[in-house]
Batch of 2 targets.
Target 1
Amino acid sequence: MAWDFDTDPEYQRKLDWVAEFVRTEVEPLDLIYPNPYDRTDPEIRALMRPLQQQVKDQGLWACHLGPELGGPGYGQLELALLNEVLGTSMWAPLVFGCQAPDSGNAEILAHFGTAEQKQKYLQPLLDGEIGSCYVMTEPTGGSDPTAFRTTAVRDGDEWVINGEKWFNSCAEFATFHIVMVVTDPDAEPHLRLSMFIVPADAPGLELVRNFTVPGFSEHEGHLRFTDVRVPADHLLGAEGAGFVVAQTRLGGGRVHHAMRTVALVRKAFDMMCERAVSRPARKGVLGGFQMTQERIADSWIQMEQFRLLVLRTAWRIDQAQDYRAVRKDIAAIKVAMPTVMNDIARRALHLHGALGVSTDLPFLDMTTYAEVMAIADGPTEVHKITLAKEVLKQYAPADPVYPTGFRPVLREQARDLVARRLEREVGNL
Ligand SMILES: Cc1cc2nc3c(=O)[nH]c(=O)nc-3n(C[C@H](O)[C@H](O)[C@H](O)COP(=O)(O)OP(=O)(O)OC[C@H]3O[C@@H](n4cnc5c(N)ncnc54)[C@H](O)[C@@H]3O)c2cc1C
């Protein structure tokens, strides 16, 4: 039997250290510097470096990466338990070297990058020296990569990129972008696209503007490519393999968002419970009302179900060592995440009354975050389709009129079975 819901005591000791460290040293910084992604800001750098060193001293830097890439190689399950602590803070993932979008970009550079690409882009990214951006969504459509229009055309030893992309997180602070573009418009849909590394200072690449999402301290960039030239060796993965590279990246990204969401859900839940036992109401406190109790019970059930699904998905990725083999589970947590976050944040908000809707408490940010989680990395509908298709693959067709559960037939079969048994038992008397 291998079912075990306990955390290894040695790792639990590390998690306890992380919880205290994040609470006392890291989270206060979120209130003063809400966007810590600017690595050139001297104040942010001065505050970030010593904290990162403490994490490295604890052997917790870039927890998800193998030793060959400078991490301890703990795997996704340990990362999930760590992200359950880090997810309430913008600073904490950067302090621990596992922040989006860099962690996903590092993963595909490690998977598909050449030795030169790794040295030039991956190493400084892992060292926390530079930032990166993942550039896929286009103004004319994001959910369907087969509709992308930005192109790269080969010209001698270079590729020339033209087109527009938007909602690219942290574009303003990126040293390089990983960009998905059409290289063969006539190929079959999943072979039309390739992935490129594009330096942020490439001539012709323009940051048109930044989008702001309430409650999100990072900005989403709108990028325009006008005859942007990159050397041929800036292709990441094979020509036409953009889809495969993207799936590797997005699989990890979705799971990591879900892990961090567990932390935010827990925060909303804890605040709701604190309010329930603190706020006087009639002759007792809010928690004495049955409708409050129902909210707390429903929230606890949703939170625990979601957490277990996230942890099992992480465990399955570790077993399979391949995100694609765990597509169904990843789609399921991607779908569950916004609903659980939204339901619990809204209940917590409601219990705080007027204060709950103010910007002095985090609940409205959490509900916006839930909406973003239902859209970013693909909308809920698309993931439901993936999940259902994967589930249906496990079923074989039966009679089109009478399902295998049709009781009259089952009853007939049961009667035959009982008759045979009785015949044997009576014969043996
Ligand atoms: C905060 C934030 C950060 C982001 N960061 C990045 C980033 O770093 N890099 C990047 O490339 N992109 C990023 N995105 C973009 C994100 O991935 C896209 O917004 C997403 O893929 C949806 O694309 P879209 O906005 O074009 O919506 P559309 O594709 O136009 O979809 C709109 C709606 O149509 C419906 N719909 C679409 N397809 C289907 C379908 N097949 N079946 C049923 N209904 C459907 C859904 O309701 C969907 O919400 C970010 C977005 C946000 C909000």
Target 2
Amino acid sequence: MGFLDRIPVISLYADTRGWPFIIAWLHRICGLLLVGYLWFHLYTLLSLSSPPRYDATMKFYGFLLFRILEWALAIPVIFHAANGGRLILYESFETRDDVAMIRWVVWLSILYGALLGALMLIGTQNVTALFFWLAMLVAGLALAYGVASKIWTTENSPFWKFQRITGAYLLILIPAHMLFMHLNYAMAHEANTVLMRMQGHFIKAVDISLVVVILYHAGYGLVSLMGDYLASQTLRIGLAALVILVMLLFAVVGVKLTIFI
Ligand code: HEM
């Protein structure tokens, strides 16, 4: 972690509060950023109902600045995913070697960012959607099952268990989703390519699973964060109800879009 220690703000907090404190905060901030992006992403996908509108929107986001921002999104995604994986590993398998694990998180994040950037620059790769998503689904479900079998009999609430199980599923599916969508430009940015792919029942099922699982995971994350910081129980319950309502609304919109497109 030597190079991070040389950044003044980080080294100050590392010395006074310790690395686990910094990592926990980064995890939270990245989680919140991802919730904001998720809502925006689902909203953008609504324009698929009018292919010319979708293509125009994507053309607008094709400017260099947005392409850089799109790549930069990989940083919170992969950091939250890798660090979430680290936490799940602790909780499920009681593996604990903080220094080695944090080093893995940082290097895996850098490697993933470089891979995604290279794919975005090359932009000519391809793979059969069915083959790619079948492989990822098997890996995601296997990991989720492995975690479920470890934590199922613990004392934690079922909601907490589902958040860890969904985290394990997302650990494979989310980085895979980002890589897949940037194999070439048409994959995610041309309405006809997206619509054609989404006609397959298998792809519809994978997409629906992603929508439902992410919204549950993110919703539980928001509610548990509020529990940590809000003293008033009334406020906590009111805001939790609001989060559940918003997530349900996005789930209905996302599932309807996937089925009827
Ligand atoms: C990609 C794989 C992912 C994994 C492995 C993962 C894992 C985790 C874990 C283990 C926690 C609990 C942290 C704690 O209690 O200290 C968590 C919290 C959270 N996650 Fe994820 N997550 C992933 C993706 C996502 C996505 C895509 C979103 C949003 C769209 C998201 C939003 C959140 C939020 C808001 C929290 C609460 C913040 C916190 O407790 O630190 N996560 N995640």
